[in-house]
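User: Okay, second chain of the day. Same drill as before: sequence in, C-alpha cells out.
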Amino acid sequence: SRYGPKMPLAVDCTAELIRCKVLDSSGRLKSHELILSYGLALVRFVNLITERKQKMVSIPLRQLAREVDIPIWVVDLRHELTHGKLPRLALCRKGCDVVLDWLRKTYWSRQLGNTLCEESEDEEEEGVEANAELDNDAWE
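Assistant: Same drill. C-alpha cells below.
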C-alpha cells in the first residue's frame, strides 16, 4: 500500500495469481470463469514482465521470455489465451503454479534474502546468473 499506483510488477502479478487460486479453492466460480480469471492473470504476467525488456524494435515474446527464464510453454499458453481457443482449466492452474514459483525464485526470495528458496546452492547460482539483468528497478 505504500507504493500506491507504483506497485512493483511482481507484487501486482503475485496478488492476481493468488487471487485466482483463492477463487478456485472457494468453489464459487464455474470452470469457464476460472479459466478467464487465470487467463487474465497469466496474460498480464507475461506482458508486464517482458514489456520492460522490449526495445524500439519489436522483439518476439518467446525471445524475451527466454532472456528472463520464463518457460516457453507459458508464453505459448499466453498466446492461446489471447489469440486462440481457451485452454483447459488444468493447464491454466499449472501455468499459475509455474509462474508463482518463478516469482518466488526470481523476486520474493531476493526480497527476503533467499530464505524462501529451497534450491541447492548450484541451482541458486544458475538462477541468479540467468536473471542477473533483473535488478530491483525492473520490478517497479
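The chain has one domain: 9-109.

User: Thanks, on to the next one.
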